[in-house]
């Protein structure tokens, strides 16, 4: 059994709290929050609470960090440099410099870090990835966004990591080239990200300036089409127009499970890749074309 610490208890901290309870190999041992008194008393009856990162080190085997990205470098590096495995909510950071520092600490202290690019843990998306493994050339397109939220940092860092992560995962390599364009929107921000992988291309639309919530990803080759619609209630993956049944496991539950298994078995997979996550940050930080 892995004793997990959770740093941050906002919207995503609460999501992790629920998912940890669904993972057999994991137990939440401590929650760290700037003001622990705001954590509901029923939770404080069975989980330790603290404002100290050092207390998390004493109580946990590994930690999930669900705080604003401006804090990620300080918090993640503190734990990595102490030898504690880290699961980090996306985006990795607000700047490429901070992201590089986090992964340098991971490498220097030989401590794993998993960034929660949540769709890479979706059974439906992973089925799509297997289905298109030999397709070439491939045309990838996606829409990921909503009308909001409006945060202190750009919405390209809020929505973009999902789509770029999925495109790189499908292509199986870093892109040969990338461009980012600002798209006019009446409210919020919209960005068009174009990635080039040899003979294949990805055209991704992301941002908080959409009329409604969208999370659609499609790969095509010739007359073949594989689509992943995360907003569909059940039939999230279709291949050539036909529904392909997949497990309805929560992607967040699966992400926490993968992290816990990596900590207990010391076995990491491709989703722990520093290269993948640094590619994402460098692409999203490109000057607008």
UniProtKB/TrEMBL annotation:
InterPro entries: Gfo/Idh/MocA-like_OxRdtase_N, Gfo/Idh/MocA_Oxidoreductases, NAD(P)-bd_dom_sf. Transmembrane segments: none annotated. SUPFAM superfamilies: NAD(P)-binding Rossmann-fold domains. Pfam families: GFO_IDH_MocA (PF01408). GO terms for molecular function: nucleotide binding. Residues 2-109 form the Gfo/Idh/MocA-like oxidoreductase N-terminal domain. This is Gfo/Idh/MocA-like oxidoreductase N-terminal domain-containing protein. It comes from marine sediment metagenome. Gene3D superfamilies: Dihydrodipicolinate Reductase, domain 2, NAD(P)-binding Rossmann-like Domain.
């Amino acid at each position: 059994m892995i004793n997990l610490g959770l740093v941050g208890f906002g919207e995503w901290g609460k999501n992790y709290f629920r998912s940890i309870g669904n993972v057999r190999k994991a137990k939440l041992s401590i929650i760290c929050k700037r003001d622990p008194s705001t954590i509901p008393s029923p939770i404080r009856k069975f989980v330790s609470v603290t404002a100290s990162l050092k207390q998390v080190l004493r109580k946990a085997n590994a930690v999930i960090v669900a705080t604003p990205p401006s804090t990620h470098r300080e918090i993640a590096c503190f734990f990595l440099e102490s030898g504690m495995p880290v699961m980090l909510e996306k985006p990795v950071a607000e700047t490429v410099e901070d992201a590089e520092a986090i992964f340098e600490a991971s490498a220097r202290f030989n401590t794993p870090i998993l960034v929660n690019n949540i769709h890479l843990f979706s059974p439906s998306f992973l089925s799509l990835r297997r289905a298109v493994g030999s397709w070439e050339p491939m045309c990838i397109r996606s829409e990921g966004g909503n009308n909001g939220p409006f945060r202190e940092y750009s919405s390209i860092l809020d929505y973009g990591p999902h789509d770029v992560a999925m495109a790189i995962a499908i292509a199986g390599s870093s892109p040969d080239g990338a461009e980012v364009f600002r798209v006019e929107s009446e409210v919020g921000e919209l960005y068009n990200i174009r990635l080039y992988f040899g003979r294949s291309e990805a055209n991704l639309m992301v941002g908080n300036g959409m009329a409604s919530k969208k999370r659609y990803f499609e790969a095509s080759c010739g007359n073949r089409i594989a689509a992943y619609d995360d907003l569909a209630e059940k039939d999230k993956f279709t291949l050539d127009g036909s529904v392909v049944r997949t497990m309805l496991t929560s992607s967040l539950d699966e992400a926490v499970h993968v992290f816990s298994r990596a900590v207990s078995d010391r076995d990491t997979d491709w989703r722990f890749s520093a290269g993948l996550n640094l590619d994402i940050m460098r692409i999203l930080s490109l000057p607008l074309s």
